[in-house]
Amino acid sequence: MPTFQFEAMDATGQEIKDLIEAPSEEEAQATIRQMGYFVTKIAVKKARKTAAEKKKSGRKKSFAIGGVSSKLLTTFTRQLSILQDAGLPILRSLRILEGQQKGGRLKNSLIDVCDDIESGATLSEAMGKQPKAFDRLYVNMIKAGEAGGALEVILRRLAEFQEKSQSLKRKVKGALVYPVVVIMVAVGILTFIMYKIVPEFIKIFEGFKLKLPAMTVLLIKISYAVVNYWYLIPTIPIGVWLMVKLIRKFRHGRLGWDLFIIKMPVFGQIVEKNIVARTTRTLGTLVASGVPILEALNITRETSGNAVFENMYTKIYESIREGESISRPMKEYSRPRFHPMAAFFWFMFVAGPIGVLIYITRMNSRVVDDLVVNMVDVGEETGELDTMLYKVADNYDEEVAVLTESLVSLLEPLMIVILGVMVGFIVISLFLPLIDLITNLSGGK
Questions:
Q1: How far apart are CA 408 and CA 175, in angstroms?
Q2: Where does 119-213 have alpha helices with state H?
Q3: % pLDDT > 70, the chain
Q4: Is 102 helix (H, G, I), strand (E, B) or coil?
Q5: CA of 422: how far to CAs of 188, 413, 425, in Å?
Q6: Coil, helix or strand for 285?
Q7: 6 has which bridge partners?
Q8: What DSSP line would sit under 62-96, residue for residue?
Q9: How many Å apart are CA 419 and CA 246, to the nearest integer?
Q10: Residues 172/270, Cβ–Cβ less than 8 Å
Q11: For the chain, how far is it from start to end, CA to CA, in angstroms?
Q12: What is the rounded average pLDDT for all residues in the chain?
């Protein structure tokens, strides 16, 4: 006897979802009506394919580690949006895209999603079972699209959201490639000079028993440290990185580190504005897609990636549950308080007590400025919250791009000056004794 999956409403208007066994759909509807329910949707629940049937279909999973890259997921979303706009059934669209994927996490997830849909699950339910491929933001937008009967519109909006996020990431990463490469090459060259070149000069100086100037003595000590303790060059950065990772495992440690990062001069502004752009675009996309505001705030909080913003969105969530608007708690709770772990990081990484003093002078600045608060307030008043949030996100995207280019423009001459000073110090330190040696030899003749 087939099993029917149905949705209905009772006498009070409450939605009911359940399963019922009946010889036919007509008898199933009659039975449901006898129970006092009004049927709104009914369909045969398909049995899940067995492992043998899946194997017989020829769709095999490959070994995969980790999740799905944002670039690959963005491409998939855009392709799925195009197929839905063309009017193809969702299952056929997913089959087409699954067949085009190379082996990996996304292909494995799409195989499972297709099987779940064939078994009677909705697209959002099937994707919700694949958290390593589709996060809560993705699943909730799909769910909103299914509920509103506008899945193709939601997919298009989701694809645009992901593409803009990817574009900003590419700009930031592309701008930082040059300075990172230059710093790594410079460190490698200077290490080689200290490890190989300077010791040869030391042998010459010792052979002639020269009286060395202070600069040369300092250079020799640095070279000695590099030769004897070279393993500290990679060990110290790795050790600091592991220490920060360990501290961030704890709630207060993560909050202190995130606060330290966003309060740094120039670089902190880039991180802060990037988070504002991402969270406002996320919230705007969810609101425009019909996701309830409390759920949208929860998802936005989880995708912010920064404990300071997570705390702010938690306070906004709690305020809205009590009947407040978004703009007032956003303004009130966007000013972080003093945090001892943040002061510790400033003391450790930025010149000790001076770093703590800098932190104290900067800690009261808000992470969300008046522009964002006012735009959100206007959006709530006019009923165009999603539009205002999009405008804030676009504005901050531009600011992040400009700040990143300015930072790179500042770093390039700064690195040239620093490298010039280092090379000049090495050259002068090595040639001062040589000049003395040549002068003495010439005088001897």
A1: 7
A2: 123-128, 136-148, 151-192, 198-208
A3: 94
A4: coil
A5: 13, 14, 5
A6: helix
A7: 18, 42
A8: ----S---HHHHHHHHHHHHHHHHTT--HHHHHHH
A9: 33
A10: yes
A11: 115
A12: 84
